[in-house]
Amino acid sequence: ASLLREPTFSSPRNHPQHASVPLICENWRRRSQTPTMAAKSSNPLISNQKSSQVQAVLHPLVLLTISDYITRHTLRQQKGPIVGALLGQQNGREITIEHAFECHLREAPEVEGGYLLDASKFGARLEQMITVHKERQLDFVGWYTLLPLTGPT
């Protein structure tokens, strides 16, 4: 069984800053229920479960931040994977994803995949972001990466 699950999205009833999220999430939900998703996946990173009962509220700023990172990485013709951290809150089975930032990697030819997370830079940046957003009490809730369909190397 895969550890990754497809999220279900809740209405942002308690999150007025997430006003545009229901339309985006509803469109995602409709696409995720197509017969192609119901078929058994050969990719071990994709779950075939219908729901994990986790409610996720995604702030549009996160999408903009990730899109900006991908664009800069591509236009600068940078090498290496695209990896970033997600900040938000978890209250029971509801997770809000409110901010994102890119993670710096360092080349490490001795490891499989050739890159490692720069732990000192990550720790410093995470601490900065948590300090800046201390009123919202944000914490590390996940990460994102762009990978080929075959998964990580």
TrEMBL record:
Signal peptide: none
InterPro entries in UniProt: JAMM/MPN+_dom (IPR000555), MPN (IPR037518)
Source organism superkingdom: Eukaryota
Disordered, as annotated region: 1-21
Domain MPN: 56-153
Gene Ontology molecular function terms on file: metallopeptidase activity
One term under GO cellular component: COP9 signalosome
Family: Belongs to the peptidase M67A family. CSN6 subfamily.
Name this protein carries in UniProt: COP9 signalosome complex subunit 6
